Prior knowledge:
alpha+beta, Arc Repressor Mutant, subunit A, two-stranded parallel ribbon, 3 helices, 5 strands, 49% helix
Amino acid sequence: MEKKTKIFKDALKGLYGKVLIKIGEAYGDIKGNSNIGYLPYNKYNSKICRCFCITKEEAREILQIFSDLGYITIAKRGVRIEFELIENES
Length: 90
């Protein structure tokens, strides 16, 4: 079983935090429908580029930053998510 970094949604601030939340949501949308284990690039691009009005090149740069930080792994067919978003309990 793989060990994922746990991130509280409320702890994420700023643009990169919002992007991580959107990546997690996009992965959650396909995770129940498929056991492929990654977020395909076309799903990533449609979610991130449309939500933040950025180009595909800028979206790829963001992927590289998150890969360097260890939050994701860039694979041949898509993005492997190495984090888990957790709702804060009130």
